[in-house]
């Protein structure tokens, strides 16, 4: 299995631009999670989906952030407009329906100038 | 979810056992203890989890005290590649992980 796949691995953009991060979960997993990691705040859960439906988005910082999961094999996290304080590493993780173990992708390192 | 407490950092000599403690005194009876690690610039990696009994897999052993208020992750023969931040967290079925700052383990040659 290829594991969780994220793209791009690195993104540098300018303030005000739209950023789209992509995630392909492990095949057969029915839950998907988006996390953000910064030095100041550590690893934070932004949103998670179960069977493609958003269940809890209480961690999404503000309306500039949105996430979608149009099918079981793809999810996006969009930031529009981006701001320098959005600079962080964004991780996607997936989980099967038979346990709590989450498997993380390699992350997208975002830098907003 | 149980609040967990871990030492900020630890050192271990290469080839020796690394014993990483975690306190979770508020853990409830149906919360699992999970361990993850994060090697620099990589995503968190699942290591092991347990409920009551001690567990062992190809990566590590997990020792949970009888009262479940604390646990120890054991890497039996630490290598330089085990240098990472190790996270201990408690989770109930249907809930999500909350990651603290973890323990930064440095394996020294």
Instruction: Give the SSE string of chain B.
Output: EEEEEEEEE
The parts of chain B where pLDDT drops under 50 for at least 5 residues are: none
Which structural category do the helix and sheet elements of chain A fall into?
mainly beta
What is the percentage of strand-forming residues of chain A? over 45%
Low-confidence residue ranges of chain A: none
Radius of gyration of chain B, whole Å: 13 Å
Mean pLDDT of chain B: 93
Helix coverage percent of residues of chain A?
A: under 10%
Number of helices of chain A: 0
Beta strands of chain B, count: 9
Shape of chain A: globular
Distance between the termini of chain A: 36 Å
Number of helices of chain B: 0
Level of helix content of chain B?
Answer: under 10%
Brief write-up:
The complex is a heterodimer of chains A (113) and B (109). Chain A has 113 residues and is mostly beta strands.
Give short descriptive properties of this protein.
heterodimer; A: mainly beta; 4-stranded antiparallel β-sheet; B: mainly beta; 9 strands; 0% helix
């Amino acid at each position: 299995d290829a594991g969780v796949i994220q793209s791009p691995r690195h993104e540098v953009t300018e303030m005000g631009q739209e950023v789209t991060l992509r995630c392909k979960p492990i095949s057969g997993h029915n839950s998907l999670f988006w996390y953000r990691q910064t030095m100041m705040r550590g690893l934070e859960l932004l949103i998670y989906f179960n069977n493609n439906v958003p269940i809890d988005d209480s961690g999404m910082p503000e309306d500039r952030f949105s996430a979608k999961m149009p099918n079981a094999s793809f999810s996006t996290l969009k930031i529009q407009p981006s701001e320098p304080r959005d600079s962080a590493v964004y991780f996607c993780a997936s989980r099967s329906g038979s346990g709590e173990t989450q498997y993380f992708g390699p992350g997208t390192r975002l830098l907003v100038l | 979810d149980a609040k967990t407490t871990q030492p900020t950092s630890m050192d271990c000599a290469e080839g020796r056992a690394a014993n990483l403690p975690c306190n979770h005194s508020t853990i409830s009876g149906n919360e699992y203890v999970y361990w993850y690690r994060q090697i620099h610039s990589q995503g968190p990696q699942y290591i092991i989890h347990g409920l009551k009994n001690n567990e062992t897999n190809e990566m590590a052993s997990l020792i949970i005290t009888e009262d479940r208020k604390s646990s120890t992750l054991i890497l039996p023969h630490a290598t330089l590649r085990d240098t990472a931040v190790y996270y201990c967290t408690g989770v109930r079925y249907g809930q999500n992980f909350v990651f603290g700052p973890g323990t930064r383990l440095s394996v020294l040659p």
